Amino acid sequence: MQPPQDPFRPYDPQYDPLLAPDPGAGRAYAPTWWVASAGTPPEDDGPLVTDIDVDVAIIGSGATGMATALYLAQEHGIQATVLEANQAAWGCSSRSGGQGQNASGRLKRSQWIERWGLDTAKKLDAEIRGGFENFRHLTTQIDCDAFDGGHLYLAHRPEKLAGLEAEARLMRETFGYATRMMGTEELRRDYCDEREAKGAMFEAEGVGIHPLKFTFGLMRRARALGVTVHTSSPVQGWHTIDGVHHLRTPAGTVRARRVAVCTGGYTGQALSPMLKNRIMPILSNSVVTRPLSDAELAATNFRSHTFLTDTRTLRFYYRLLKGNRLQIGSRSAVSGADAEDPVHLKLLTDAIARKFPPLTDIRIDYSWWGWVDMSHDMMPRITQPDAGKKIWYAVGYGGNGVSFSTWAGKRLAERLAGKDAGKEVFELPIYRSPLPFPNVMGLVESRAFAPFRRIGQRALYKWYWLRDEK
User: Fold this and answer.
1) 20 to 30 A from 33, CA-CA: which of 120, 214, 288, 310?
2) Where is this region: Disordered (predicted)?
3) What angle do CA 408, 410, 415 make, to 5 degrees?
4) What is the pLDDT of residue 441?
């Protein structure tokens, strides 16, 4: 075998999981604010340099992978081996918006009821809420700049208010939350002077974090319990002999009895047939400004670090960070080859100017993009897709994995340890079925649609823009 490549290979801004066989080997982090401000990464075990035999191998060292490893060791006495293609937490966990919501997947609770009925929706709510509370507790134990200030969902047009009011009423009356509507006067007086907002829905369940500091914290805890983390060790081949999985990396093969895939939006098409064409990777662009001056803070009336999202289909997510920098992100680019086009940066700087006019033309200190793992039915899966094969995965959060990924790791650890049998919670839709293939209008599902997904995505993005802006 060839030795692993240099652990400091340059970051590839055009990396595309639908085209590249793997995320690379030992590539540098994306140039994010989180990487610049996270401090020294935890120690790891370096690239794999020989063949090894393990009980459990986990592919991916983001929040899901590290939480899975942590809970396997902490609650089940199993020390897993984690394989990371590049640097620790190189993917979603070093690029996300850090908005920990009481959610997972793209569907709202009203949509859960439409799809599965009220009884299942209530059970799913209890599970997602439990995951959020677990995440909230972890943020008090890990130094991650956590701000437990809730979530503001802003109507960017007057006609969006009715939908927010209906969802807030459902959250209160059906699910028992204290979700409420907020007028523009209260919003601008107590939170920030966001000029597009026509009103907002406020939910108290929301914790903003520094996602890389948080994942580094999970990693430190896991390694203290005996977990091994091999960086610069992408899985470049996978075959199974007599029930043992042979995971080939550049300089060594891991022979594992059980495998968990926690690769999020960085799941390559060649990794496993069980995942091919079942995840749609979606780019999310993000920027962080220079620190705001006292005059700019006064002009925008930022009084809180509570995070915000708006009601566009391709929504903007934003907040004032510790140190008074503004962070904002949204969907824009479609392919890796297109990601560097200045039009995507302009989308975000134009949004800053609309939402906060005093910050027009403010200097951008950090600009990056990352891949979101979107399932074709908009909900995640934490499952064993084939009972005859000891392979599990936890993916498909659709941009809402900041809080739920740690709970997904906890549930995935239960499944890997064989402690899921007979538990009613594992009958929920996110646990009992595999990720679906692409579909047309939710009516016909087929892998044959996979080659046409990006054609459809480009058309949808144009339609979304017309619907949201015209």
Assistant:
1) 310
2) 1-22
3) 90
4) 83
Q: Quickly count: other Cβ atoms within 10 Å of residue 114's Cβ.
A: 11
Using the predicted structure, report yes or no on whether residue 171 has a pLDDT greater than 80. Answer: yes
The yes or no reply on domain 17-147+208-278+377-436 and CATH 1.10.10.10 is: no
- Per-residue pLDDT tens over the stretch 269-293: 999 999 999 999 999 999 999 999 9
Other residues' Cβ atoms within 10 Å of the Cβ of residue 342: 9
Question: Is the CB of residue 278 less than 8 Å from the CB of residue 75?
Answer: no
Count of H-run helices and E-run strands, the chain? 12, 21
Other C-beta atoms closer than 10 Å to the C-beta of 101 total 25
**CA 234 to each of CA 336, 398, 405: distance values in angstroms, whole numbers, following the listed order:** 19, 23, 21
Q: CA of 211: how far to CAs of 100, 320, 401, in Å?
A: 9, 15, 11
Task: Output the six-digit token pair for 368.
Answer: 């990056």
Q: For the domain 151-204+281-375, what is the CATH code? A: 3.30.9.10
Please state, in angstroms and rounded to a whole number, the distance separating the CA atoms of residues 398 and 375. 7
> Which pLDDT belongs to residue 5?
39
- Per DSSP, helices labelled H in 191-293 are 211-224
Q: Is 53 exposed, middle or buried (0-12, 13-18, 19+ CB in 10 A)?
A: exposed
The owner of tokens 């999310």 is 284
Q: Is residue 434 scored above 90 in pLDDT?
A: yes
Q: Under a CB-based contact definition with an 8 Å cutoff, are residues 213 and 143 in contact?
A: yes
Residue type, 99: Q
Pairwise CA distance, residues 293 & 311, whole Å: 29
pLDDT in tens, 316-350: 999 999 999 999 999 989 999 999 999 999 999 99
**104 in Cβ contact with 404 (< 8 Å):** yes
Residue 202 class from Cβ within 10 Å (0-12 exposed, 13-18 middle, 19+ buried)? buried
In one-letter notation, the amino acid at residue 81 is T
Residue 4: predicted pLDDT: 39
Distance CA 373, CA 375 (A): 7
Residue with tokens 């499944």: 415
pLDDT at 221: 98
Burial of 3 (0-12, 13-18, 19+ CB in 10 A): exposed
Cβ contact 289:365 at 8 Å: yes
CA distances from 158 to 173, 191, 470 (A): 24, 20, 13
Cα–Cα distance measured from residue 351 to residue 346, given in angstroms and rounded to the nearest whole number: 8
CB burial of 186-199 (b: ≥16 within 10 Å; e: otherwise) equals: ebbeebbbbebbbb
Residue 195, phi then psi, degrees to nearest 5: -80, -20
Amino acid at 288: V
